[in-house]
Amino acid sequence: MNNDQFIHYFLGFVDGEGCFHVSLKKQKSAKMHWVLDPIFHVTQHKNHKELLYNFQKLMGCGIVIQKYGQSDTMQYLVQSRKELVEKIIPFFKKNRLIVKRKNFEIFAEVVEGLNKHQHSNIKEFRKLVKKVFVMNNGGKYRKYSLNEVLDSLGSSETTRQTRTKL
Predict the structure, then answer these.
(1) Does the pLDDT at position 90 exceed 50?
(2) CB contact at 8 A, 84 and 73
């Protein structure tokens, strides 16, 4: 298989077995008390883990590990924001997905926003959170609801006044 064929194979594989995800985690030490944590991963049975190593070689980044809690499943994953910005996002902007295109586009907007430090501004952080809840079936599998997260942030004005008093 030549490189162009492998790229097309990889795109199809990601459309079926890949995931662009942004976790939303409570973290009291964070400025907004929430952290957005982007990750790209592809899973495969351990019998075919060599395929994941080939994906890692193609992308020039990421790691291959056993999926937590699933001894028969391996993952190729990229969680470094630098690698996401420099390798993963440009690759998928150039080589377009079909099934997961919309999730990727939102993922790219969020990661690029994080890279521009938009998450340190309450108004911009709220926009990023709203985007995250559009991804992957509208966030229906998330631990926290969109309203719960936004309510915990308070209004932009309340947050600004609180920070001014500190």
Answers:
(1) yes
(2) no
Interacting residues of 141 by C-beta distance below 8 A, sequence separation 6+ = none
Alpha carbons 142 and 125: distance in angstroms, whole number: 18
Q: Which residue has the higher pLDDT, 119 or 166?
A: 119
How many other C-beta atoms are found inside a 10 Å radius of the C-beta of residue 38? Answer: 23
Q: Is 137 within 8 Å of 147 (Cβ atoms)? A: no
Among 135, 18, 24, 11, CA closest to 76: 18
Q: Please report where in the chains the tokens 């991963």 appear, as a residue.
A: 41
pLDDT of residue 157: 43
Length in residues, the chain: 166
Taking the domain 3-165, which CATH number applies? 3.10.28.10
Question: Can you spell out the DSSP letters for 20-40?
Answer: EEEEEEE-TTSTTSEEEEEEE
**Spatial CA neighbour of 165 closest among 123, 124, 150, 157:** 157
138 vs 141: CA distance, rounded Å: 8
Q: Above 70 in pLDDT, residue 155?
A: no
